UniProtKB/TrEMBL annotation:
<feature type="transmembrane region" description="Helical">
    <location>
        <begin position="20"/>
        <end position="39"/>
    </location>
</feature>
<dbReference type="InterPro" id="IPR000412">
    <property type="entry name" value="ABC_2_transport"/>
</dbReference>
<protein>
    <submittedName>
        <fullName>ABC transporter permease</fullName>
    </submittedName>
</protein>
<keyword id="KW-1133">Transmembrane helix</keyword>
<keyword id="KW-0046">Antibiotic resistance</keyword>
<feature type="transmembrane region" description="Helical">
    <location>
        <begin position="157"/>
        <end position="177"/>
    </location>
</feature>
<dbReference type="InterPro" id="IPR013525">
    <property type="entry name" value="ABC2_TM"/>
</dbReference>
<keyword id="KW-0472">Membrane</keyword>
<feature type="transmembrane region" description="Helical">
    <location>
        <begin position="94"/>
        <end position="121"/>
    </location>
</feature>
<keyword id="KW-0812">Transmembrane</keyword>
<feature type="transmembrane region" description="Helical">
    <location>
        <begin position="51"/>
        <end position="73"/>
    </location>
</feature>
<dbReference type="Pfam" id="PF01061">
    <property type="entry name" value="ABC2_membrane"/>
</dbReference>
<feature type="transmembrane region" description="Helical">
    <location>
        <begin position="213"/>
        <end position="232"/>
    </location>
</feature>
<feature type="domain" description="ABC-2 type transporter transmembrane">
    <location>
        <begin position="7"/>
        <end position="202"/>
    </location>
</feature>
<feature type="transmembrane region" description="Helical">
    <location>
        <begin position="127"/>
        <end position="150"/>
    </location>
</feature>
<dbReference type="InterPro" id="IPR051784">
    <property type="entry name" value="Nod_factor_ABC_transporter"/>
</dbReference>
Amino acid sequence: MLAAQTRIETLLIVRHGEQALLTLIIPIALLIGMSTVHIGDLPEPRANSVMPRILALAVMSTAFTGQAIALGFDRRYGVLKRLSATALPRWTLISGRVLATLLVVALQAVVLSVTALFLGWSPALSGLLPGAVLLVLGTLVFGAAGVLVGGALRPEIILALANAIWFVLLLAGGLALPAADLPGALADIAGFLPSGALAEALDAVLVQSSLPGVQPILVLLAWGVACGATAVRTTRLT
């Protein structure tokens, strides 16, 4: 049952046009553009500095924005209510969606990695395994935030709000520009946002070949626990 549910959820994500735009087209376009256009003072090859931020963007797009919108419309059309009335256990519904999101993130990572290699990306090999762990952690954290937004509000509000939050986290989280290049207080705030914390941790393991640091991990865990605990109390099936 879990395998079947995971397959269905994965196909629904992959076949959705807006999801494809968020999960692949925009991240690939930004990866190519930021790696080839000389904006900001980045060492060569620029793809080394850009790739961790694009990976964080990809995770945020799939696990947060995509899941929030999908959950909101599933509630609107009664999908969750009908599924909960079947013999399918609730834990299978949740696990299937989580595993599907992880599979899509893995697909994103592969496609983006191949693209980045053509752009000169040379990751620290010792950071590949910690980087994979960070992607899983980031997926769970942003997934919890997506459930929080998508589980309580009306779909029309979710559509606007999820995209607005995505845009804010893209800019203020140091994904479009490195956190050090952000103006004023934004440079300090970026590290306390989940997008900035994930990008910082990925940069540490993939570029600097070091441990991700305590602060980014604590920031991600804090956001995950806060969003998850709130989502449990506020999520509705309809």
